[in-house]
Batch of 3 targets.
Target 1
Amino acid sequence: MTKVLKNIKGDKVIWAIVALLALFSFLPVYSASSNLAYLYGDGNTFVFLVKHFAHLLLGFGIMYWVHKIPYHYFKGLSIIMLPVVVVLLLFTMAQNTTIGGANASRWIRLPFVGVTFQTSTLAAVVLMAYVARYLSKIRDKKVTFKESLIPLWLPVFIILMLILPANFSTAAIIFSMVIMLVFLGGYPLRYIMVVLGTGLLALTFFILTAKAFPDAFPNRVDTWVSRAENFFNDKDTPEDYQIERAKIAIARGGVVGKGPGKSVQRNFLPQSSSDFIYAIIIEEWGLVGGVFLMFLYLMLLFRLVIVAHKSTDVFGKLLVIGVGLPIVFQALINMAVAVELFPVTGQTLPLVSSGGTSIWMTCMAIGMVLSISSKRESMLEEESDAMNKKTADINEKEDNPLEVLSEAI
């Protein structure tokens, strides 16, 4: 264990934030899993706690392994992995999993181990690394929209089209993050506006086609529309039931909460250990716990900005923003849904909600950020060693007058 700790590199504050989020997650996950335990088990929540611990343990293993990889390797890895994630997304879509007639093909079951894996989360990390690589490549070049259409936007829209039918919120987040990244990467604004317009037209065409031919292919368009309508109108729907229970949990929490494990709404709120875990946290830990959790994510954002600023090259800066910012963005969306500032999306709270794929991919993204910050530390250590060696040589010469005299002659 001591050897592992000595080999930990990168921003220590980020390590601390991730560790705090992981440690904090055990109490709300253990408490909120009672709903799942009675619905799909024998009422034993300890099984879900062990499962969450295993997910976090593997996640930290992924983060440790990834942060030891020199970050410039991610350029080549993003090119290699891009066709892999396209194949995985195609395989996921080909399963035609439906729930209530809607497309629910988000997961694949890994052979031999029997673990489910959400392919869209891996695709998001790979795509952001790929876009960062392309932007760093054209940083000092004048590129036309036509020249960037195939190498940049074709992979983006292919991945989005494969994710969209089953998971609109994830596709929307990925598209938003890509637009933000190309803007920060210096991509011409007029081209960005063209892409935005094209994306909106494509989404509109998809929705109209799905509404006109509802039996042509399974999709979740009706779910998206109903969630948007319910957010602005007062209607009794399953989503409204979730929001109402979440608001009751938040109201019961008050300032200091009811105490760990004393949530009542966990027994009534669907997805209490994943999508709506923030409401359970406020019910048990109060406003103090909710604000503290938000502070941790904002502190993570602050450290991401620092790591990006201190990065020695453009690719490092863009990679930190591309894979790091979506973590904070997703966390804020999850909190906004719980307090009814945003329609129900199905996004989890990173590193806190239960769920394997989300934890693993979040840890992989953070590992990439830590790899970039560790490169900066290595350079500073090399400069410090060189300075110390130079100082030692000067001191040694000063201690030897004959050597100083010979150099002067």
Target 2
Amino acid sequence: MARKPRIEFTGAIYHVLNRGNYKADLFDSAGAAQAFIECLFQTCERMGWRLHAFCLMRNHYHLAVETPQGNLVTGVHWLQSTFGNRFNRFRGEHGRAFQGRYQAILVEPGRHLAQLVDYIHLNPVRAKVVTLDQLAQFRWSSYRYFLRDTAARPPFLLCEAWLQEKGGLTDTPQGWRTYHDHLAWLMADEGRQKDAAFERMSRGWVYGGDAFQKNLLGKFKRMPNAQDWGGTEIGEINRIEWKKLLDRALRTLERDLAMAHAEPKSAPWKIAVAAWLKQRSSVSNRWLTDHLGMGPPDAVSRYVGELKKSQRPEAQLVNNRLTTRVRG
């Protein structure tokens, strides 16, 4: 029986979770856990995700992610395949790192998202990996990142929306002390965790109120077919976004598309632009080579890979220039 397609649309929020293949431990070392977090942060940057919470346990992960561009499938595929490749190289192993199909449960904004964040943050406490007082030192959770100075926090890691649902808390030291007290209140009584629907957080296809679910179902029924749940529209949105990024890079470098097609396929500035776009979006190699004239799609991957390995110093200089000068 064919798998149902993922439900994707702009601005969707998901509880994403998956386990190691055969429930094997994936994050049993600090190196593996840190590698996954680095892949997660790179995914957020490339896909434009908003990350509301995350937590790694020994053999699984939990994410609360918002997808302004409706690109869940592309993003999770990149996240898991990139980490899987790095994990296998590090361990000298082969095969899948994760079990077959990840869960992606749609979440209603507001109160339901705020409850999901509580559930994710309390995961290691409820599993008795750490105590609540030790949670601020637990390295593999967004809770620790939120307690840092905001200047050191990744810009895609956001808390304002769900903190507001906790009685109007703010992203301040006092706000976080009150949030800690809220988590302690939840942990003091299992009945409160049941009232917060913790047992429902990892089941089904949606977590939200009846009106939210009915609205989603009505929206999907009006679509031509399930395979197009956001696919056509999102593809067009992505291409528009890629073109905006490309135009900004070209203006910064005082170049244009005519120059791109007139100059060598491996011109340093073109490699720099390709790498810069791939760092910030889900842009495809085919699209890059069509617009920049860089030869076959696999050549783009090769050139960008060489830049990352410091084998293209001229291109790296231009890439650094783009990183520091392009705004907005």
Target 3
Amino acid sequence: MNFLILSVTAGEGHNSTAKAIRADLEECGAEAEILDTFAYISPELAKFIADGYLLVTEKAQGAYRIGYRLAEKRKVVSERFDSMRLASAALSKELVDYIRSGDYDAVVFTHPFAGMLLNAMKKRNLIGNRTVGILTDFTFHPFWEDNTANDYVVVPDKLLLPQARAKGFRDSQILPFGIPINPKFRETGDKIEARKKLGLDPGLTTFLLMGGSMGYGNMEDLAARILGLDVEREFQLIAVAGRNEEAKSALDRLAANPPKGRKLLVTGFVDYVSLLMDAADCIITKPGGLTTSESLAKTLPMIIVNPIPGQEERNTEFLLNNGCAMAVTATVPIEECIYQLLMSDVRLDAMRACIRGIAKPDSAGELSRFLLNLAHTPRMEMEKDSPAPEDEEFVFLKE
């Protein structure tokens, strides 16, 4: 069995999800290929999208927030005059031969823009492959409404069913498997043993501070404020600086002389995040879809900091509304969140109980089993020969 996974480099989440899907499919004995969609079509376009995303999310967050909200509210009157649909129709020609030549049992996509290309192909009967979209956040991004001709969409939880329907998906298309995460996050290890492996005090409450692969946010300031908290209860902190060498150097200096009764373990980019999560009682993190899904799989309560406008703000809303997280805001500083959790074991237990209700530790496994079963399922004649509605108009109402 052979599968194609289309990704788009706009941040690392979509690529990481694609790799998690591939890893699980390969564990099952299938073949899976990842293709960076726009890098294949046009390297210049791919670089523009990747660099533009980093620029606006780091340097122009206010503008990005406004643009994202406008995109959420957009109203499409006719597909013939919608620029995004016209672009999809033009670009899809670059991928048709590639997909046809691969004899793929299904095509999976981790970004709605890649799905829009497939959507255009499906509507014009240019490909006959089953297509499966993956949400990589706890919300439907703008333009998912332009993906409804694809066969299925994987959502983080059944609680997103109303959003899916509002976008135009039928219930039969919706697969509440969860955001696919690497198989190594399926199991939760013993906290005491994990702390011993890391050289930490096995008996102390442990917080894990992460800023993503690039160490976003002022991690030195956050760590200093956490360690300087005026509370009698002892605790320890793990800080992961990712590939941010400047942040790691600053954290190393802080770790060399921490406040009395505190311990700080600093790492750069590591491949043992699963072990770090096993050691922790709570994670302090940006609310990226993949990191939060991994945290949920580990039954790890969250303190959310520095969300990127748009999708990460929606992730924050979902996690707060479902009792899985606290959030640092302009009026709720990090010290207050840490203090409340240190002084209330009941609060942590309640958050863990809520997390168990929505965690999907075997998300990639569920998707793999579905795809393998799909590969063995004959296509219905109606499914094979559905007409191409070249001139049909679709009306999407404002949500």
